[in-house]
Specification:
Largest sheet: 5 strands, mixed
Number of helices: 11
Shape: globular
Radius of gyration: 19 Å
CATH superfamily of the largest domain: NAD(P)-binding Rossmann-like Domain
Helix content: 40-55%
Structural class: alpha/beta
CATH topology of the largest domain: Rossmann fold
Number of strands: 9
Order of helices and strands: HEEEHEHEEEEHEHHHHHHH
Strand order of the largest sheet: 3-4-5-8-9
Length: 278
């Protein structure tokens, strides 16, 4: 773990809890002397990425692999711009229903990491190395042939479920049972699907159907990360989701009225919550 300031002290002293089990892991500060890491995993909110890019600088060596498990479709590009795309592997996490309160995290579904090179017709040696690490740690994973398509698929899912849940204030159960909630979610997702076609990424209605098979396995009481952010009065990642959809819509001349309305609605919620940085 890399942290500084109050967070560094808190993680060292109190650690964190996962399903009521305490973990106190080694923590280093960004400027601490330490050899470069073999693997650096980046798992921060979008608006914290610039700081994370700077904080990992001393951990990056000639053979370091950087794996971002963040939402969105451009964290890899930002990390690659700083350290070289040749160090980057793509990744998304799917099927996790974790809830976080302070330093306590609970989940009923562990989910799976999809990761790899942009294209994986043959598994590269560095992907094999990370697969071996995940095997030893008991982390479920899959390496798809077309990782960019999976990255966009997860982006489409987050644009739908994360944002709709934040607007409606609804847990997963609403999207498992309510046609109205599903319609809002799908309308946002279909704007991503239209843009993906112009970006030469193959997304279809079948991909939405596949999402429902994942959704059905999540805890009905579970909440998306964006809904948890709203309820905790934290800044959301709406700029990375709806904001990115709107940006790409303008680039490809595709209307994005649903995501425009979602952006306005969530920004209003943030303003009412007096969230810093909004």
């Amino acid at each position: 773990l890399i942290a500084d300031g109050e967070r560094y002290e808190r993680l060292r002293e109190k650690g964190f809890y996962v399903n009521n089990r305490q973990y106190i892991l080694p923590v280093i500060r960004p400027n601490d002397a330490a050899p470069p890491s073999d693997l650096v995993m980046v798992a921060v909110k979008h608006h914290h990425l610039p700081k994370a890019v700077a904080d990992i600088k001393r951990r990056i060596g000639g053979k370091t692999i950087i794996l971002s498990v963040m939402n969105g479709i451009d964290s890899e590009e930002q990390l690659g711009a700083a350290y070289g795309m040749e160090k980057i592997l793509y990744a998304v996490a799917v099927g996790i229903d974790a809830l976080r309160e302070d330093n306590r995290l609970t989940y009923t579904t562990q989910g799976k990491l999809f990761f790899g090179e942009a294209k994986n017709p043959v598994i590269s040696e560095r992907v094999k190395d990370v697969q071996a690490l995940f095997d030893s740690a008991g982390i479920a994973y899959e390496t798809p042939v077309d990782m960019i398509r999976i990255l966009w698929w997860k982006f489409m899912i987050n644009v739908g479920i994360n944002q709709a849940s934040a607007v409606l204030g609804a847990p997963y159960s609403a999207f498992q049972t309510s046609q109205e909630a599903r319609e809002l979610m799908e309308s946002a997702m279909k704007e991503v699907m239209a843009i993906a076609g112009e970006a030469k990424v193959d997304l279809s209605e079948k991909d939405i159907e596949n999402w429902y098979s994942v959704l059905s396995g999540l805890s009905p009481e579970g909440k998306t990360s964006m809904l948890q952010d709203v309820e905790a009065r934290r800044k959301t990642e709406v700029e990375m989701l709806a904001g990115k959809v709107i940006e790409l819509g303008k680039r490809y001349h595709i209307p994005t009225p649903v995501n425009q309305k979602i952006l306005e609605t969530i920004k209003k919620i943030e303003d009412e919550n007096a969230i810093p940085g909004t």
